[in-house]
Amino acid sequence: MTENTARSTQVFAPALTPFNADLTVNSQAFIDFCRWLISQGAGLAVFGTNSEANSLGLEEKITLLEQLVDAGIPANRMIPGTGLCALPEAISLTRAAVALGCAGTLTLPPFYFKPASDNGLFAYYANLIEAVGSDRFRLYLYHIPQFTGVPISCDLIVRLIKSYPKTVVGIKDSSGNWENTERMLREFPGFEVYPASEALLEKALPLGAAGCISATANVQPQLIARALKAWGTPEFEAQQAQLKAVRSIFQTQPMIPALKHAVSKAFGDKEWKHVRPPLTPADASWADGMMAQLRDIGFDMGMEQMGGTEGVQR
Q: Catalytic site residue 124?
């Protein structure tokens, strides 16, 4: 990549979006949380799945991006999600991200009309790239077929790389299918492949993975960043085991409410528990047990790990 630091960051968090009680975005809490993630060594995949991206409106996203940059959050540490079903809206959001200097965009395929052919998906991405029309634009594909119902095939990747080699530079593979991730890593050397879980790092890093873009980077960003730096050393194995243990606890529950519950406990702020419908907040029937499990394995997302309360909206 050129003129950005996205590759060196390696771990990206699909930053959780805090809402007020009336379900409006708490932009100050969002800025503070993103600032903390950056301080812990993570980049920002804002408007990812676990950001509740598809519960946010276009104008909300553009405004939040502008507010992050205005607050001094480095744009070159962000790869915001910009994939939307309506091509004009995807173009508008992507243009805004590029204009602000973001390192790239993480772009879902349009997911309403199914099945979608590779020809149709190629046309979507090609029109997006041509409309944005910037040499600075770096596009990361977002493969999450269990949510979209629209897979991104290796054949499509080949076509996009061939047509737009300087623009289409990577992919997040959230399929949960290791064979698919492994195929991408082996077939596209130099292409930035990000697994969606830190639990896969021990298998993915030897094949050239660029790091990970993980939901649980919201709660253990520094631990993931340390593990990535420790790759190839004796310390990595123990760190990977801890990462897996934390990840396994969170993924047994509805991920977004679970993560927001943990953050609310860490910050002592009940407002962090709010989610937009159709999601529902964490329920005590499982949330208390989850927190107990995390304590049992020695994971404490407390103020000591968070570097204190300075700069955090309470």
A: no
Q: 3-state SS of the chain: helix, strand, coil percent to 5?
A: 55, 10, 40
Give the N- to C-terminal CA distance of the chain in Å, as an integer: 37
Give the C-alpha separation, 138 to 140, whole Å: 7
Q: Is the pLDDT of residue 307 over 60?
A: no
List all residues 6 or more positions away from 90 whose beta carbon is below 8 Å from its beta carbon: 82, 83, 84, 107, 110, 128
pLDDT in tens, 122-169: 999 999 999 999 999 999 999 999 999 999 999 999 999 999 999 999
Under 8 Å between Cβ of 260 and 269:
no
- How far is the CA of 4 from the CAs of 77, 103, 244, 256, 266, in angstroms? 8, 6, 30, 29, 32
Cα(312)–Cα(259) distance, integer angstroms:
17
Q: Which of 9, 17, 49, 105 is catalytic?
A: 49
49 catalytic per annotation: yes
pLDDT in tens, 217-259: 999 999 999 999 999 999 999 999 999 999 999 999 999 999 9
Give the pTM: 0.92
CB 14 within 8 A of CB 215: yes
In the set 5, 24, 112, 270, the catalytic residue is 112
Q: Which domains does the chain have, with CATH numbers?
A: 6-220 (3.20.20.70)
How much is the pLDDT for 300?
75
Percent of the chain predicted with pLDDT > 90? 91
What's the confidence (pLDDT) of residue 174? Answer: 97
Please tell me which residue in 124, 125, 140, 142 is annotated as part of the active site.
Answer: 142
Determine phi and psi for 280, rounding to 5 degrees: -125, 150
112 among known catalytic residues:
yes
- Which of 172, 181, 216, 265 is catalytic? The answer is 172
Q: Say whether 172 is catalytic.
A: yes
Task: Please give the structure tokens belonging to residue 53.
Answer: 């991206």
